[in-house]
């Protein structure tokens, strides 16, 4: 084509430069007409050549994308196979046989009495058992009493101009001071560290959070409890409000990932384990499923989830069931707490143009609250879309690291027919999930375990079976 352009330009120049240029106008036009097919042919050739280059580039990009996807899938399968071998070797050392196993009893009394009644004598008379329970109520710790359990607190700033607290519990301290030791200064080898996430409207000061941290510490593991935004408490036991509208939800993994990045930069060789209970358990599972094979890039080695919701789309109607204990005991208490938090946020941040205060106030179920507050803040269509997008059941098959999921069949918060064992490698599925569903335990109960009369755990704050099993599992994974 360049040759054709050159030829036409020279012909035109020669003809116009001739003395009789005006008389050769027809000759120029004729030359253009003669060379026009050459232009068309060359233009088509260039277009085809450019098209082949673009197609080659697209094919190259597609091939690279397919290669990366295949490599990631292969890596995930390999990690899941290794994880499957680890969970196959683990068994909970003690079956749960409680004195009273009713779901509501386990749930309510577990919240109040886990410090003193996690283990009871097998042959204890009914009268002595009642006395033990009464004494348990008298000696039950308040959340504020648990503040002293933690060694250190840190405020973590977030990229969206908010913050959250993390609380540290170290296995060992420096010998030359009372300052808590970091995971690497406490010993020559990095101490495995558990990142612990609490449940809805709970905190690191909650009795279960402290109990689980104690269980992990008993297994020589450091613990960092991550408080969801707006959940951490001050020295007087009051919630410390966060700085932006909203706080957290079932699938809120943003702060967990943010802190893991900070921790990875500080302690690049320290093995990380994730643990959570209730809502925090779902966040842990959702995060692991989203990360898939990339979990090891964050140095995550394993996880434990206690009373995980799994599928909130199925669970929500259970808590909203009319004329039920769920509706008038559990929902009522949680809902009032959530409404109070939302009201304070709207007043403090003057966000009435974004959220309907009236809808929040009139909500009678958790789902109605989620529909009025959580869904619009985080961009979900409604509460049902929120539950669909955040329930961990949809990503369990992508989990790459050994993970214990421990629930109870009589948990009054859940639809307990939702138990996807088919996703576990022990039942033919892909994921290294050790799925244990006890006959009893309620929601975060696992107390009143019957043991021999001389068992040293009786009457102490020894971790209940659920917390103990979670710690045993993570230590099992770490040891192997």
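-> sequence recovered:
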């Amino acid at each position: 084509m360049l040759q054709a352009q050159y030829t036409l330009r020279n012909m035109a120049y020669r003809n116009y430069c001739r003395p009789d240029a005006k008389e050769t106008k027809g000759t120029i036009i004729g030359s253009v007409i003669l060379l026009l097919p050459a232009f068309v042919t060359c233009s088509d050739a260039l277009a085809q050549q450019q098209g082949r280059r673009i197609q080659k580039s697209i094919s190259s990009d597609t091939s690279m994308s397919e290669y990366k996807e295949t490599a990631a899938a292969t890596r995930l399968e390999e990690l899941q196979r290794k994880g499957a071998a680890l969970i196959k070797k683990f068994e909970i050392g003690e079956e749960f046989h409680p004195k009273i196993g009713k779901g509501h009893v386990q749930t309510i009394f577990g919240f109040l009495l886990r410090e003193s009644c996690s283990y009871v004598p097998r042959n204890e008379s009914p009268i002595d058992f009642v006395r033990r329970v009464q004494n348990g109520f008298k000696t039950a710790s308040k959340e504020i009493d648990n503040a002293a359990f933690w060694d250190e607190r840190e405020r973590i700033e977030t990229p969206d101009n908010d913050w959250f607290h993390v609380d540290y519990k170290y296995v060992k301290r420096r010998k030359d001071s009372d300052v808590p030791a970091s995971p690497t200064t406490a010993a020559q080898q990095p101490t495995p560290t558990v990142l612990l996430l609490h449940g809805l409207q709970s905190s690191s000061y909650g009795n279960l959070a402290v109990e689980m941290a104690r269980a992990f510490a008993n297994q020589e593991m450091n613990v960092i409890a991550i408080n969801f935004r707006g959940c951490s408490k001050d020295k007087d036991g009051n919630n410390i409000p966060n700085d932006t509208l909203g706080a957290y939800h079932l699938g809120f993994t943003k702060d967990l990932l943010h802190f893991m990045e900070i921790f990875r930069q500080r302690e690049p060789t320290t093995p990380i384990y994730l643990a959570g209970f209730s809502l925090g358990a779902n966040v842990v599972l959702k995060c692991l499923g989203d990360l898939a094979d990339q979990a090891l890039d964050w140095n995550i080695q394993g996880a434990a989830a206690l009373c995980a919701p799994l599928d909130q789309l199925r669970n929500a109607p259970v808590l909203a069931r009319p004329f039920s204990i769920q509706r008038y005991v559990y929902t009522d208490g949680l809902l009032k707490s959530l409404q109070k938090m939302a009201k304070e946020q709207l007043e403090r941040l003057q966000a009435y143009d974004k959220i309907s205060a009236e809808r929040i106030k009139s909500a009678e179920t958790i789902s109605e609250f989620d529909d009025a507050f959580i869904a619009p803040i985080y961009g979900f269509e409604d509460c049902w879309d929120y539950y669909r997008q955040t329930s961990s059941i949809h990503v369990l098959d992508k989990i790459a690291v050994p993970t214990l999921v421990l629930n109870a069949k009589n948990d009054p918060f859940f639809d307990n027919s939702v138990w996807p064992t088919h996703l576990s490698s022990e039942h033919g599925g892909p994921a290294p999930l050790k799925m244990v569903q006890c006959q009893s335990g309620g929601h975060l109960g696992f107390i009143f375990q019957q043991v021999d009369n001389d068992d040293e755990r009786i009457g102490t704050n020894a971790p209940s079976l659920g917390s103990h099993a979670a710690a045993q599992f993570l230590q099992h994974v770490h040891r192997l």
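The longest strand covers residues 163-169.
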